[in-house]
Amino acid sequence: MSSNQPVKLRQFALPFYIPAFIAATGSGLLLPVTPLHIRALGASFGALGLILTFAALGALAGNFMTVPLVSRIGKKNAMVLALGLEMLAGVLGWLTQNPYLFAPILFIREMAHAIFFVNRLAYFRELVPEKQRGRALSLLGGESRMGTSLGPAIGGLVAAAFGAPVVFLLFALIHGLVLIFVLGFVPPDPVRLDALQKTASLGKVLHIIRDHKKVFLTAGIGIVALTFVREGRRVLFPLWGNAIGMAVEQIGFLFTMSYVIEMLLFYPAGWLMDHKGRKYTAVPCLGLFALGFFLMPLAQSLPVFLLIVVMVAIGNGLGSGINMTLSTDYAPPDQVVEFLATWRILTDAGAVVSPSVIGFIASATSLVWSAPALGLIGALGVIIMYKLPEKTQPGSGTGLS
Predict the structure, then answer these.
(1) Contact partners, residue 118, CB within 8 Å, separation at least 6
(2) Residue 3 included in any domain
(3) Statement: residue 316 has pLDDT above 60
(4) Percent of the chain scored above 90 by pLDDT?
């Protein structure tokens, strides 16, 4: 468990922060490449949406698997297994030329990422005191954005020079490097395995939801909206850039620019969360997402599109670490892994639905109308986060205070 004694965040550099940067760089490689590559292999907009939905379904599966996996092999070993699966997914993506085979590949990749993410987050919940958690997790989010700012540019250049499949192989190799850091520097589990609940069935998830239903029906729904628009951006922006004539390497640099902007905001976001309250970052984050998507139909030229990308990037930067911080705020000390996995299961619902919504609307009408749909979800999230009370968690957590 985390104590109230301050910790030096630099001690987390080798086990967590540097690997987060490296892993995010690897994942960022695929951001401009994956949807365009699947389309180039012959998938329609509708099929692309369904294929990308398997990534979010994989994340849900990973969340379900986390608790029984951790109860048997521990958090560190679960992280090692997850990285091995991500390497496998990268190699399979390198080899396949069938667009529909990317459905299971993306499922495996995101399942592994969810397992890795929840266990890494559980370490922070157990090792970092509450008063430092906003900064610690916004720093983690910032490191991830630093990596993600480099990855798309590298991925776009590699795809242009050597072909999209090579990007997936590079993804696998980079996650092999992350595996070395995890094996060498992540400490043993701070919570004994026999202290974890041994069951992680649907019944266990429902039990946690029942015990914390107020949290899930308020802050949880707000984060669902956030995951919806974040995943929507990852799908919509490459397709939009391609539609207005941008090359894959240009789209890669576009993502890099947006993540550099976000990277500059991660520390101010953490300071605001710790000193002013969680909603001081959640509300403007979702508000700028909503405004940007409502304006997207006007982005028929590169300069207007760039302005909207910058606007959304500022919003996402202000939201650095908000999902992780809220989930760890609310996690009960005796059910950290179980609660975090359940939180991820529910809040990832936004990521599950978002690609399919974009694909369905684009196929039924045009890509232009997908953006306002995302804007509506973002606006709903603004209302929910704004109306949340200042304190929603009794006891150890701070809620949105």
Answers:
(1) 62, 63, 66, 337, 340, 341, 344
(2) no
(3) yes
(4) 45
CATH, residue 23: 1.20.1250.20
CA gap 119, 285 in Å, rounded:
26
Task: Examine residue 396 and state whether it is found in any structural domain, yes or no.
Answer: no
d(CA 35, CA 359): 11
Q: Which of 273, 17, 282 is nearest to 144 (CA)?
A: 17
Cα 125 to Cα 336: distance, rounded to the nearest angstrom? 7
42 occurs within a structural domain: yes
Between 245 and 128, the more confident residue is 245
Rounded-to-integer distance, Cα 223 and Cα 379, Å: 12
> Which 8-state DSSP code applies to residue 219?
I
Domain encompassing residue 378: 9-190+198-387
Query: Of the ranges 125-134, 190-199, 287-296, which is most confident?
Result: 287-296
Query: Is 149 domain-assigned?
Result: yes
Contact 267, 138 (CB under 8 A): yes
What is 92-146 written as a DSSP string? HHHH---GGGHHHHHHHHHHHHHHHHHHHHHHHHHHS-HHHHHHHHHHHHHHHHH
Confidence grade of residue 389 (pLDDT, cut at 50, 70, 90): low
Name all contacts of 103-109 with Cβ < 8 Å and 24+ positions apart: 103/50, 103/51, 103/54, 104/54, 106/34, 106/51, 106/52, 106/54, 106/55, 106/58, 107/54, 107/55, 107/57, 107/58, 107/61, 108/58, 109/55, 109/58, 109/85
In angstroms, the first-to-last Cα distance of the chain is 22
